């Protein structure tokens, strides 16, 4: 695995159904995206800075729809394959 | 910043070979090996819907999307919940009382048979509903304990699932949970926080397993 860009855990990992080299990983350090199966990671802006995440999911019907659950109980949704996110709840 | 070798600790090696070079410098991928320590557990039990939990704003520990209608299911410390409106409101699923009291850390659906929902958790074991969440049964035959810390479904062999048992290693079922077998010890820095199967090319078997740990993700071939 490549360098993990945060000194915190990976609590959730999602492999993009369309392209398995695209991987999302999340944890207390936020959301990170890899385009090369984990060799490199880039932080994804998701709401307020410092949102700790514990869960990720992709809608199998509409693969651009993704969800991220925060430890606080907040739920975030992306409609563009994980590029941008907005708070649902 | 840290880098790390990506490997699960092999345990009773058989069949797979050391492999490097999927990624560039700094990435080492070791294959994983078959472990044969099968431990019997009580027969799977059938449960009916016995518990209804008031709809709370319980934080999700895991999320899954039902391919039939796009509804969202979350595993929480207070049970399982389904949302039909994209997560704005939630209704509890009637999971059996014994595992529900411990809460759930994982939930996943079989995308090819989405009425099949799996859930697991520490002290909760693994439970399966084959009717969309109305009734559930325990599927723990072969698991050494009920301490399920992570759960994953194979990317295309949908009867194959993986469970990480706290202190017990990685287990696999190839028949939808009827029987589990120990595969290996998993990554060295336990506990596991997440487990995800990938169909990424380059594996000596069918794909790869990502494991979420306290110091980041690990990857391993699924050639148990």
Describe the protein's topology.
The complex is a heterodimer of chains A (89) and B (224).
Chain A: E1 12-15, E2 23-27, E3 30-34, E4 42-44, E5 53-58, E6 66-70, E7 75-78, E8 86-87
Antiparallel strand pairs in A: 1-2, 2-3, 3-4, 5-6, 6-7, 7-8
Chain B: E1 46-47, E2 62-65, E3 72-76, E4 79-83, E5 91-92, H1 97-100, E6 106-109, E7 117-121, E8 125-129, E9 136-138, E10 148-153, E11 161-165, E12 169-173, E13 181-184, E14 194-198, E15 208-213, E16 216-221
Antiparallel strand pairs in B: 1-9, 2-3, 3-4, 4-5, 6-7, 7-8, 8-9, 10-11, 11-12, 12-13, 14-15, 15-16
List keywords for this structure.
heterodimer; A: 89 residues; mainly beta; 4-stranded antiparallel beta sheet; B: 224 residues; 1 helix; 16 strands; globular; disordered N terminus
Compact description:
By secondary structure, chain A is mostly beta strands. Helix content of chain A is 0%, strand content 38%. The N terminus of chain B is likely disordered.
- How many β strands of chain A by DSSP? 8
Largest interface: A-B, 44 and 48 residues
Structural class estimated from helices and strands of chain A = mainly beta
β-sheet strand percentage of chain A: 35-45%
Q: How confident is the prediction overall: mean pLDDT of chain B? A: 79
Helix content percent band of chain B: under 10%
Strand order of the largest sheet of chain A: 1-2-3-4
Average pLDDT score of chain A = 91
Largest sheet of chain A: 4 strands, antiparallel
Counted by DSSP, the helix tally of chain B is 1
Secondary-structure element sequence of chain A?
Answer: EEEEEEEE
Number of helices of chain A: 0
For the sheet with most strands of chain B, the description reads: 5 strands, antiparallel
Report on this model:
The complex is a heterodimer of chains A (89) and B (224). With 89 residues, chain A is mainly beta. In chain A, 0% of the residues lie in helices and 38% in strands. In chain A, strands 1-2-3-4 form a four-stranded antiparallel beta sheet, with no helix packed on it. In chain A, strands 5-6-7-8 form a four-stranded antiparallel beta sheet, with no helix packed on it. By secondary structure, chain B is mainly β. Chain B contains one helix and 16 strands. In chain B, β15 and β16 (216-221) form a beta hairpin. The radius of gyration of chain B is 17 Å and the shape is globular. The two termini of chain B are 31 Å apart. Classes of the chains: A mainly beta (89), B mainly beta (224). The interface between A and B is large, with 44 and 48 residues.
């Amino acid at each position: 695995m490549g360098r993990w860009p945060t000194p915190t855990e990976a609590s959730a990992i999602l492999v993009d159904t369309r392209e398995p080299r695209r991987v999302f990983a999340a944890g207390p350090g936020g959301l990170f995206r890899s385009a090369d199966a984990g060799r490199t990671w880039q932080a994804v802006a998701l709401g307020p800075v410092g949102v700790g995440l514990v869960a990720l999911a992709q809608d199998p019907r509409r693969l651009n729809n993704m969800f991220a659950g925060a430890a606080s109980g907040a739920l975030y949704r992306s409609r563009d394959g994980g590029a941008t996110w907005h708070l649902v709840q | 910043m840290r880098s790390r070798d990506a490997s699960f600790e092999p345990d009773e090696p058989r069949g797979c070979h050391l492999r490097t070079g999927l990624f560039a410098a700094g990435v080492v991928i070791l294959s994983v090996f078959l472990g044969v320590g099968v431990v019997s557990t009580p027969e799977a039990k059938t449960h009916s819907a016995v518990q209804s939990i008031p709809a709370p704003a319980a934080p999700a520990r895991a999320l899954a999307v039902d391919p039939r209608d796009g509804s969202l299911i979350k595993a929480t410390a207070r049970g399982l919940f389904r949302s039909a409106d994209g997560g704005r409101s939630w209704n509890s699923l009637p999971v059996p009382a014994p595992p529900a009291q411990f809460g759930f850390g994982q939930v996943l659906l079989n995308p090819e048979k989405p009425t099949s929902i799996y859930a697991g958790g520490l002290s909760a074991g693994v439970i399966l509903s084959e009717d969309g969440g109305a009734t559930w049964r325990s599927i723990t035959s072969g698991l050494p304990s009920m301490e399920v810390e992570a759960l994953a479904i194979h990317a295309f062999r949908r009867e194959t699932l993986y469970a990480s048992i706290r202190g017990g290693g990685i287990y696999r079922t190839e028949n939808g949970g009827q029987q589990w077998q120990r595969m290996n010890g998993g990554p060295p820095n336990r506990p596991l926080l997440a487990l995800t199967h990938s169909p990424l090319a380059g594996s000596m078997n069918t794909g790869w397993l990502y494991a979420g740990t306290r110091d980041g993700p690990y990857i391993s071939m699924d050639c148990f």
